[in-house]
Design a protein that fits this description.
By secondary structure, the chain is an alpha+beta fold. It folds into two domains: 171 residues, Beta Barrel (M1 Pyruvate Kinase, Domain 3); 71 residues, no CATH class. Helices cover 15% and strands 27% of the residues. It has a four-stranded mixed beta sheet. α2 packs across α3. It starts with a strand and ends with a strand.
């Protein structure tokens, strides 16, 4: 099969639920439009995210089609509240402050978003087969749950597990590839944090998740992976940069091709 783009997920508010979309516009910064465009901050101007606050994983979010409004609910409650992200920002911040029991500010950056890796701030890439392989390591954890835990933007089909490891080089030089007519550069295997070790619904930790991951990831490295790029094996998916592709669009179903390295 020819590699192709099987799925696009964006995360309008950093650390909150993702949204599957059929196509995504590439911004001048290389970020995807509306991906991590908003983030929560505490009184010390630090991120309130899954790394620092497991409670954020108990929040469910839905967005209007234009991403102007968000509907929130708590995992243990059927009650929902809806806020316009601009016109009702103060009301939203008050609701979130009550939920987190601390002052919360909602900030936006519609140009670059709030990426975890500012040196490789393009969309993250993984394959469906990789998610399936990781799910097989944990009894009772589904592919969809693994997808929600690792929160990757672009999911590739038509390839074997860990095919995306082809998108970083042994030397650390960028690996160019295309998705449709969009040129991306693979940079490095993505270092994971505490978030994937917890349930995406409850924030409850899965026993020995990281230990199992480290063992299985090391044991299943395909021949095309460069082990020297791993200071540890708690890495999954690939960080990218996207340069000079402003206003181009990534579309589900588009072919994926590796380009010759410079």
């Amino acid at each position: 099969m020819t590699p192709y783009l099987a799925r696009i997920d964006i995360f309008p508010i950093k650390s909150m639920d993702g949204v599957a979309i059929p196509q995504a516009k590439v911004l001048e910064s290389g970020a995807l439009e509306c991906d991590r465009a908003y983030a929560l901050f505490d009184a010390q101007d630090r991120f309130i995210n899954g790394k620092r606050a497991a409670a954020i994983q108990r929040l469910r979010t839905r967005f209007t089609s234009d991403f102007s409004s968000v509907t929130l609910s708590q995992a243990e409650s059927a009650q929902e509240v809806t806020f316009h992200l601009h016109n009702q920002q103060q009301e939203l911040e008050a609701w979130l402050s009550d939920y987190f029991q601390q002052p919360v500010t909602l900030a936006s950056n519609l140009s670059t978003g709030f990426p975890d890796d500012t040196e490789a701030a393009g969309p993250t890439v993984i394959s469906t087969a990789t998610l399936e392989a990781v799910a097989s390591w944990y009894p009772g954890i589904s592919v969809e749950e693994v997808r929600r835990r690792f929160r990757t933007n672009l999911e590739l089909g038509g390839v074997p597990a860990f095919w995306e490891d082809r998108l970083f080089s042994a030397e650390g030089t960028p690996v160019p590839f295309t998705i449709g007519d969009v040129v991306l550069e693979g940079v490095n295997p993505c270092q994971r944090c505490v978030v994937p070790t917890r349930s995406a619904d409850t924030g409850q930790a899965t026993s020995h998740f990281q230990k199992v991951f480290l063992q299985k990831r090391a044991a299943t490295l395909p021949e095309w992976t460069h082990p020297g790029r791993f200071n540890h094996f708690y890495r999954l998916a690939v960080n990218t940069n996207v340069k000079n592709q402003h206003n181009k669009t990534l579309t589900v179903g588009s072919p994926v091709k590796l380009l010759p390295q410079k």
